[in-house]
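User: Could you walk me through two proteins back to back? I'd like the raw sequence and the structure tokens for each, with a short line separating them so I can tell where one ends and the next begins.

Assistant: Of course. Protein one, sequence then structure:
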Amino acid sequence: MNLYEKTASELSRMLQSREVSAVEVTTSFLERIDQVDPHLKAFITRTAEQALDTAGRIDYFRQQGEQLHPLAGVPVAVKDNISTMDLRTTCASLILKDYIPPFDATVITALKSAGMPILGKTNLDEFAMGSSTENSAFFPTRNPWNLDRVPGGSSGGSAVAVAAGMAPLALGSDTGGSIRQPASLCRVTGLRPTYGRVSRYGLVAFASSLDQIGIISMNALDSALFLNLIAGYDPLDSTSLPGEVPDYTAGLEPGLEKLRVGVIRYGSTEGFDPEVTEMVQKAASLLEKSGANVGEVSLPLTDYGLSAYYLIAPAEASSNLGRYDGVRYGFCAGGDSIEEMFNRTRGKGFGPEVKRRIMIGTYALSAGYYDAYYLKAMKVRTLVRRSYEEAFKKYDLLLGAASPTPAFKLGEKTGDPLQMYLSDVCNITDSLAGVPSLALPGGAHTSGLPLGLQLTAPPLREKLLLQMACFFEKYSEQAPRRPVLDFIEGGSSDEL
């Protein structure tokens, strides 16, 4: 088996036993990127030289007998809305095409301290606004299970990098499903931690009360290893949660005898593929046969969550994106007056979806409409949070789908924003409530495309999510682990 086919935990063990070197591991992934990324377009920026330099230093330290982090030498891909010092961070937007941050995000500092080679920055929907990675200003990313399909979004590049063996681990961000939905469509594991469990310092802001950095990996153990590294309090993030961080890798074998699982009954199943509903029912039956107490739970505000989210998130975006004015940093189109410069810079620098959300958000916050739209949406959010609190009084865990459908075709929904927004219907209320949620492979559609389950737990119960993901990995029927990529050798990437 090639090294790029190994999981992060397998690579960690092999590196610690000196069965392989960090340079060998990193080289395997870099060669894999060269082979398949021209067809998939997961990466915006590749960092081969820096990755090999880090790997070489790790090998030297290991030879000297130094005590290293378990993930030392395990490569990682990073979503391109996470700040990396001296390495451009574009957010897949023309307005930041050449922006090079002067500082690292807290999670990047953690990666570097652990000695993880960074393979590159991955593609996304511009400023993380989208559900298909088609809104990137540079190029769309393709699903490795079917190149005519989307990988989901906005963390589509990170999901594809892991699914196609171009990285064993990847960082993503999740505002309304941007880790879990692409994880589902690409057959990988995607973890959105509790809001504040992982520092957001250095994450380029979209909607600050919803944004959360998270993990994309091949399995639960890999996610647990990575979460051990990046979770914890950060004084640089005012929303960071204090408190001790548990060892997420310890005791991942779940005991189901007393576990109470609520299967989510969605207010409306219009637009749900019947095979998705069947997948969730099979998962519930498996839990019940294994000793869990399984019931049905209704989250009555699910239908309202989508509307509330698409008022709150754009409102926060309209404020956060006001900093891109052509003066302080990023692209500047010039002009004869400040007003003209602002208009030209934003007109040329922002893409259609970003402009759409800025306009929606600005309207919702404007005088005369604030109470009718934004304030009402915030009240709905409070009710959503309370409905989760009530559900968790009765159940330890909620089970549902990570996406209402398998991956849709490229271009299928770009002309209908509402249909695109409905792709996040399974994920949004978790984000509004700030609770941890995990997407994992749930099986295969008759079309051969992956389907994904979603597990949701009370705040700070990430370990329970990881335990249950381990259970499903062990006992449920699974589709092939990785897609078969029958690409013609050669090919060239789009130049930015």
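----
Protein two, same layout:
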Amino acid sequence: MEHDFSKGSVGKTILLQAIPLTIAQLIQLLYNIVDRIYIGHLPGSDGMALTGIGLVFPIVALVTAFINLFGMGGAPLFSIARGSGDKQEAQRILGNTATLLFVSSLAITAVCYLFKRPILFLFGASENTFGYADDYLSIYLLGTVFAMMGTGLNYFINSQGFPRIGMYTVVLGAVLNIVLDPLFIFVFDMGIRGAAIATVLAQGASAVWVLRFLTGKKAIIRLRRDSLKLDGALVRRITALGMSGFIMSATNCLVQIVCNTMLRTFGGDLYIGIMTILNSVREVVSLPVSGITNGSQPVLGFNYGAGEYGRVRTGIVFTTVIGAVYTVVAWIAVMVFPQLFIRLFNDNPDMLASGAHAIQIYFFGFFTMTFQFAGQCTFVALGRSKMAIFFSLLRKAVIVVPLTLLLPYVGSLGVNGVFLAEPISNAVGGTLCFAAMMATVWRELGQKQKMKEIAAAPPTGRK
């Protein structure tokens, strides 16, 4: 029953997947969060080192986009194939995903090295911050292959019903990062470069752990050499389903570039540093709702593949309610204690004063993001790639980017307009995404469940 998601309580099954996954994601955040905390308090940097890290965010988002394209694209197909009993197909999906992750990681590394300087200035670097960004990025890129293989293939450990093993993947890397960060940054006096070295070593350890498990005897479906050869049709299915996650992260990359450019124009380097802090806080406080929705994906996909449509609907309701309750509590915490969150990353008086006001704008109505997460998660879990892609584009490319470019000029909003674009997009995009899911997938699941019940009912006797 631990690996058969069609048995037992749906809510309990989702939590058994989500809790270890959330812990794992929280620990994985420490890869970057710990770096930012240490770097934000580097003596003599006045927040410029933190701003330098913020300039690398678009590249981190780009790496995440390709992880989502292949990892989050392959994992739901893997769950559906496993739920329907087709182990050979599931194995082919795993192997093709591994190849796609490896090849794309090499391509990203090469392109970013070749065009590093123009890329960083495009992302909002100035002469004061370029050195910090360049020092970090030059080393960080070496770990791209580790980050993509470790994170992308970890989805397949969770999809086989081993959430604790998936959690250990990132625990290993995060603990190493926490231990090595102060060693390289302060003891070896390597500063921002030391943070990057610690991150790369930690990512490498996680990648080795994932590959050892997926090629070992404990895995239900193992990564085999004969499944690594790319199949065109399968690649198209993987990328089609992963495209929504890719677009979400790729548009995050675009949003970060636009935000950095507008903040530099209206506020200077200080506000790019503040946005770095806001992004870090958002990653932390949105993690539980992300964990619950990601944890529900293999459960929803498995039950859909097994024809348990009523259980899929139950899972959607459970995921949405838990996410909504949590995000309301998180919103209140950020509104009441804004400086507490800012001070975690930097205690510069200017950043504290300006950042506290910015964070209250940025997180206004935070609970509405639950609807985007729940709707998007359902579309992806059930293989509805077109709907998932559409709503990914709607929120980021159609709403956030134009608002970020326009609002600073409206009523002299300036930097406040940049921060205001996020809550507006959460409310509008999230509501539309959830409403569309209810009008299509939810209704279809109800119809299929009724047909199943009618087919299973005993025939009525006749006189």
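DSSP finds 17 helices and no strands in the chain.

Let me know if you want the two compared in more detail.
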